[in-house]
Amino acid sequence: MNKAEEANTYQIHIQGLVQGVGFRPFIYRIATHHKLSGWVENRNDGVFIKVNATDREIQDFITSVKEESPEASNIFTIETTKIKNEKIKDFRIIKSENKSDEITEVSPDIAVCKDCIDDLKTQSHRIDYPFINCTNCGPRFTIIQDIPYDRDMTTMNPFKMCNECNSEYVNVLDRRFHAQPLACNTCGPTYRLHHGERVINNFEEIIRTTCELLEQGEIVAIKGLGGFHLACDATNEEAVKRLREAKNRDGKPFAVMFSSVEAMQDYVEVDRSEQDLLTSWRTPIVLTKDKGKLAPSVSMGFQNTGIMLPYMPFHHLLFVKLKLAVIVLTSGNISNEPIIINNEDGLNKLGSIAKAVLIYNREIYNRTDDSVAFITNDKPRLIRRSRSYAPSPIRLKINVEGIFAAGAELVNCFCMGREKQAILSQHIGDLKNLETLDFYSESISRFKKLFRVKPTLVAHDLHPDYLSTRFAKELNLPLIGIQHHHAHIVSCMAEHQLDEKVIGIALDGVGYGDDGNTWGGEFLICDLADYHRYTHFEYIKMPGGDRATKHPWRMALSYMYQYYGDSYSELKLEFLKDIPQNEIDLVVSMLQKNINCPLTSSTGRLFDAVAALTNICTEASFHAEAPMRLEAAIDDISKDSYEFKMNSSIKLEALFKGIVKDLQNGISNAEISTKFHRTIINIILAAVCKMRGEYNINKVVLSGGSFQNRYLLQYVENLLTANGFETYAHEKTPTNDGGLALGQLVIAAKKRELNMID
Ligand code: ZN
Ligand code: ZN
Ligand code: FE
Q1: Counting ligands in written order, which one lies closest to the CA of residue 179?
Q2: How far is the CA of 167 from the centre of ligand 2 (A)?
Q3: What is the dihedral of CA 337, 340, 341, 345, to 10 degrees?
Q4: Are residues 261 and 337 in the same domain?
Q5: What's the 602 CA to ligand 3 centre distance in angstroms?
Q6: Distance 186 CA to ligand 1 centre (A)
Q7: What is the model's pLDDT at position 725?
Q8: pLDDT below 70 — which residues of the chain?
Q9: pTM (2 d.p.)
Q10: How far is the CA of 608 from the centre of ligand 3 (A)?
Q11: Residues 209 and 321: beta-carbon distance below 8 Å
């Protein structure tokens, strides 16, 4: 026997997303396929394998591990070490032991797989079983209470496996081998429908009644994977309107679920990348172009509708019997409260809105909303990062161990550092809501435990009144305040693992500036540790401060007063005709006397002003409604744009005077909106060219909520690329404040590394 054919013992340590995704059965299968003896084990810090193999066999084995690994898994490192020779017979999977404090990843939830859907018709103990799953699919993060990922650490713990399930669980050749949430009609969780006084336990009857109610235009509350949904017929205007009124959700579009890819073709325009994202194992809500066939109250005049496909076995089973191809499936909550997760709240709070409430007897441990994404330039972009994305870590080049980043206030996610991984929480929401604030602090405690993080440094926004800032200050740990727009840019840099000086364009609604003003149209030269404000949109008064956000007409009036003074009234502006004169007088006197008029360079307020000036949206019924409606007005026919001037700030007088002139000449809103967007794009190009000239930097990083504007993002990316810039925008984390905590975390880490913290 020559040396290469001699068997040695190897230890292999694999880290990454390798738990709860069918990894050990996969290793077992390839090891037996390669006829190797040894064992595989889950530990806190990854999967450990011991095998006896020759040099060639070990190479082939590693190649198979890398190339054939399960779809939802994500291998980060494989370390192979030759150890003392051992005699091992067979190949075994051995039970997890809590061997160290290091951890590997917690898997996000995975949409039910095709094999399981097929099994619903053929497996005798799982005929139509609504909680079917296997090692390749099913609930994960939503049911995990602690690691390592074993059944008794999940909310499946109370369900004792029946003999039949157990035989699959221990059978290495079965697709359900070591599938922790494994269950069947005999032993697993069950649904229960509360319909008025009736409580229905029979699943066939549950489906029949739910279908009847939905088809009759009734609202049904349905417990989902990460929280409750409210459902109704998406083509029944009366039903959707009723749901909208009950939810107290004025103008914000509802998401819908289609039965299948085929069914959605009639209703929305979906391109290849959108379809790929919709059918991926993450099954997010994807914003697509509406063909106008859904009930008008679904999208409230927006051309973009958020659509998704079935991801729970229940959804599939429902659509088999349902005569509707599409239903509204919006989060089950009351106005701004977090999505409801427990049965009691579902019955009590949603019972008054819905005709029936469908619950099941497994607990949702970690609340997750449906994630929301859109495609621009063929790349997925996230607006809300939650179900099936969280808590996957973002890999960094910098050590962020022990840092807690508190995030923003209105669209909060927090972030924790673990070695070179940033663990961004699921979408938390608006902390000004008391229940959401509870969800925030509860989730922080859970993340500390689940990911074994003991914070030693806390990063927070500079805004003294943010509830996240106050929370951070109460922790009694070393603190570091991070400027909002610097955090935005670094969040995007972190995603792309950039660590150098870049041009950063941070466009958003509001963020506390280091001069005490409200920033939001910021052109920065920055790196991970520091920033320099190169230029910004010129300051404008924000009459009533934050209140102006709800009343875009105030911003329009502020710009008009800035450029025309008292003679603004001679312009006879259309948008002011519906505003009560006493309110106009009040705002004008605030502007004149400079009372409660903080200064802002906000891009959001600039878009608000143009949306109001054109009378597209003078009052906002939800966050960012005016900019969204302004974007929706674009026809992209006009190639014109307005004038502007750039020095230490970007002067917008010519832009506004141009719009007023166009309004007087009867130019359409579609044309004005297009010209306005093109102007912003021209401003960005002019600014970055100037900055490149002065600083010799070619990398441009885009961040901030305004880049949720698809027109803006698409054109800016393409134009900058065409002009030779390397352009970076968010793909893994939201460009809005939901991604902010990642930037805070990395800035704090860099300052710590450079000893810049006192
Ligand atoms: Zn499956
Ligand atoms: Zn069973
Ligand atoms: Fe922001």
Answers
A1: 1
A2: 9
A3: 120
A4: yes
A5: 10
A6: 18
A7: 98
A8: 1-4, 97-104, 249
A9: 0.94
A10: 16
A11: no
